[in-house]
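Colleagues,

For the teaching module next term, I've prepared a clean inverse folding example: a structure given as tokens, and then the sequence designed for it. I'd like students to try predicting residues themselves before seeing the answer, so please don't circulate the second half yet.
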């Protein structure tokens, strides 16, 4: 087997942590000795052992003179766990193959330096692209300090999210809707506008056949118009935050807070998305799944505060000037101002297609 084969295995093992390791990256490690895999490991939860620790433990004394393949540069700092670079040195590993460096300023090259100074042969960059793609959120939050934003829309062929009378169940089919719930599971928070709460009385929970993690529910609601009897206020299914402007008096907020809903007030009379993201980041939220409606989508797009756009397109035509499109608000007047993206992937899910696009300027 070649280095790339073992790194492919490490990348696949890393996927075990997807949706579980926030705010940490997912990482996979494979220990090979005399062309035999003797240890594998994935980082499964923040605060628990790192991938290398699991793999080296499994290898036991076969770690000596082994080669370890890791999808991320071994850490060099004392965080919630001791540094992996030291573990590899003490385990007398002979060679370390790394897919990509760690952007965390605490590590960034220090892990590699520790290994090299200890006389261990280090190779960096094997399957870098694939390894980076595993940790889009981690890389974004390390560089921008703001949560990674996924904007999701489910539209008809003619771009509508509902009929002119507000009906929308369902535009996309079972397979696509299941895929949406996997995305909810993978994000720290799900965010909708009060318009969606009033129109759909949604639960915003993750309903997958085997369960799944419910993201924190975040509602943008300038004047606190969320119905007091809404599911998200009363079902206790997930932590719920309503972000309001400075136009709401405390007495009204108390009504919701006694029901366990957290009300966070911005200092401005209307809701600025950048401030919302900065606020969510202070709560340790590293990824936000924006699921509409059109008004909220419009505000995220207008502020160009999206990091990936996932659109599910159904082979249906709704028509009608009054049927809403997926991006509301004032929109851009000039083509030179529009949000430009590049298509990352297109796949068919049941009868629908799923398009993942990434904004060009980052
Ligand atoms: N109408 C459609 C969607 N509609 C999504 C809505 O904007 C809103 O997120 C849902 O009403 C949330 O409800 P709950 O959390 O599931 O109870 N989303 C989809 O993917 N396909 C559709 O056809
Ligand atoms: N998950 C992971 C790493 N994650 C790195 O360590 C930081 C988290 O450290 P801690 O708080 O101690 O868990 C995280 O921000 C990232 O830089 N490093 C590794 O060597 N292997 C792993 O499996
Ligand atoms: Zn580590």
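(Answer key — instructors only)
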């Amino acid at each position: 087997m070649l280095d790339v084969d073992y790194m492919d295995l490490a990348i696949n093992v890393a996927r075990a942590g997807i949706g579980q390791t926030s705010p940490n990256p997912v990482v996979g490690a494979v220990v090979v000795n005399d062309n035999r895999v003797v240890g594998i490991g994935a980082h499964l939860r923040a605060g628990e052992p790192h991938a290398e620790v699991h793999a080296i433990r499994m290898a036991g004394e076969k770690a000596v003179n082994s080669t370890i393949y890791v999808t991320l540069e071994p850490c060099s700092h004392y965080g919630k766990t001791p540094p992996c670079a030291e573990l590899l040195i003490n385990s007398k590993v002979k060679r370390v193959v790394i897919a990509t460096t760690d952007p965390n300023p605490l590590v960034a090259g220090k892990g590699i330096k520790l290994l090299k100074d200890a006389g261990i042969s280090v190779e960096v960059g094997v399957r870098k692209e694939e390894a980076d793609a595993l940790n889009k959120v981690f890389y974004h939050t390390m560089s921008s300090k703001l949560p990674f934003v996924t904007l999701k829309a489910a539209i008809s062929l003619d771009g509508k999210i509902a009929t002119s009378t507000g009906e929308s169940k369902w535009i996309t089919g079972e397979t696509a809707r299941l895929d949406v719930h996997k995305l909810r599971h993978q994000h720290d928070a799900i965010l909708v506008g009060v318009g969606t709460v009033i129109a759909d009385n949604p639960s915003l929970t993750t309903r997958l056949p085997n369960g799944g993690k419910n993201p924190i529910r975040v509602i943008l609601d300038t004047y606190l118009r969320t119905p007091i009897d809404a599911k998200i206020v009363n079902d206790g299914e997930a932590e719920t935050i309503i972000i309001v402007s400075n136009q709401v008096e405390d007495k009204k907020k108390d009504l919701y807070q006694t029901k366990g809903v957290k009300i966070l007030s911005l200092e401005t009379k209307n809701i600025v998305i950048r401030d919302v993201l900065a606020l969510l980041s202070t709560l340790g939220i590293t990824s936000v799944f924006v699921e509409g409606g059109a008004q909220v989508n419009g505000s995220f797009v207008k502020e160009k505060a999206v990091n990936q756009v996932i659109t599910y397109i159904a082979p249906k035509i709704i028509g009608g000037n009054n049927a809403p499109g997926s991006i509301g608000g004032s929109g851009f007047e000039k083509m030179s101002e529009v949000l430009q993206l590049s298509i990352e992937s297109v796949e068919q899910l049941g009868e629908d297609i799923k398009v993942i696009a990434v904004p060009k300027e980052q």
